[in-house]
Amino acid sequence: MAFRLRKPLALAVAVTAATILSGCVGTGAAPAASEGGGAHTLTIWHAYAGQPDKVAFIDWALKGFQKEHPDVKLNVVSAEQSSYKTKLQTAMSTGQAPDVFYTLPGGFLKAFVDSGQVLDLNDELKKKNWGDGFIPSAMESVTFKNETYAVPIDMDAAVVWYNKKLFASKGWGVPHTWDEFLSLSAKIAADGEVPVALGNKDSWPATFWYQYGVMREQGSGVVTGMANGDANASFGPKASDAAGMLQTLAQKKYLPTGANGMSDQEANLLFMNGKAAMVLNGTWQIGMSADASKDFDLGYFPFPKVQGGSGDQSDAIAGVAAAFAVSKKAADKQDAVDFLRYMTSPAVMKKYVELRKTMVTLKGATTADVAGPVLAGIVKDVVEPAKHLDPFYDTTMSPKAATVYYSTLQGLIEGSTDPASAAKAIDEAVRAGK
After folding, report:
1. Cα(339)–Cα(334) distance, rounded to whole angstroms?
2. 103, 215, 367, 386: which has the fewest Cβ within 10 Å?
3. Does residue 397 belong to any structural domain of this protein?
4. Same domain, 174 and 236
5. What is this structure's pTM?
6. Which of 126, 167, 166 is nearest to 148 (CA)?
7. b/e per residue 227-259 (b: at least 16 CB within 10 A)
8. One matching Pfam family, short form (predicted)?
9. Closest to 371 in 3D by CA, of 283, 292, 298
10. In contact, 211 and 2? CB cutoff 8 Å
11. What is d(CA 172, CA 184) in angstroms, rounded to the nearest whole number?
């Protein structure tokens, strides 16, 4: 996922942001420092368009880098997450890779690594102990066969978010088990509200429901194990039960009407406007909810326990959401690496936490003073108590497997596939590893 849109913006704005010309920094006007004739041109692609908190961060970061490197002329291209992935894959397949590019970790990045298009950063990470500053588990998602090909930027954990003021006004209690969750959803629906905001037009929002279902029913580490060639890793019989959990929400009409055709932005508006009571999303939800009305009070709870499930019920979905890598074809690799160093410096990482209210991969940067009480609470209540942190399935899978994964979950929601068939299709796609 990770990859996650916020308030609806006009498409024209997103298109404009995606076509920033040479010398322009971020999604706004170019600062004066970038207008001069730099000795080098560095082409940077990123997927921070479409959300105000993301745009605020990348504009700030790019202007800071430009100020520190006035001899480098920036050619910045941005897009929102879904269109960005397609754009980058097309560029890679035609040999037109940008110098520096935003990437998902795991299988998405590995496809480019396997085709020989990404610079190995091992030697650079050893200089001045740069690599030692990262959380070790975060580095695993961008490291293949002991070689690291990107620097991880942020980490997200997925929890169930709810409107505390709405719950209090209705007398609804926070559920602790899946049965309690379904009972609560029935009450919410009977009261004329949408129990769960889900806009699955871009496919990734539904993934958390299936993954948590597998984790609670069967256990964590399934997709990671399969991706790493573990012959014993498999979606077992209980994966069908996990798929059934998502389909139950759709069949009981606990999701918005037409969830597969609704964007994540539209679903989030339902949630923030009190028209939907809950949403399962990553910690980026904090930033997405920053502009909600005074009648909205963001709360969270861990994904409910599944009674009888064989997985550890404390486990949480948490993993690297995004990273930056350097193309092997970069004209000036030192400028490109300098940009990665800058983006992962303490000052920039703390600013990221402050503006986006999400965890970062640099040790000691996600502090309470910049993270705020909600994020700090999730670290304390969800991340730290978890026996296992399972990385996002779709970023761990190969791109082809992820495509099957997305379409299969859409089929579950619309009712065109059954839970057993869905679990089998996902298992086969991940096992194929292509």
Report:
1. 9
2. 367
3. yes
4. yes
5. 0.74
6. 126
7. beeeeebebbebbbbbbbbbbbbbeeebbbeeb
8. SBP_bac_1
9. 283
10. no
11. 7
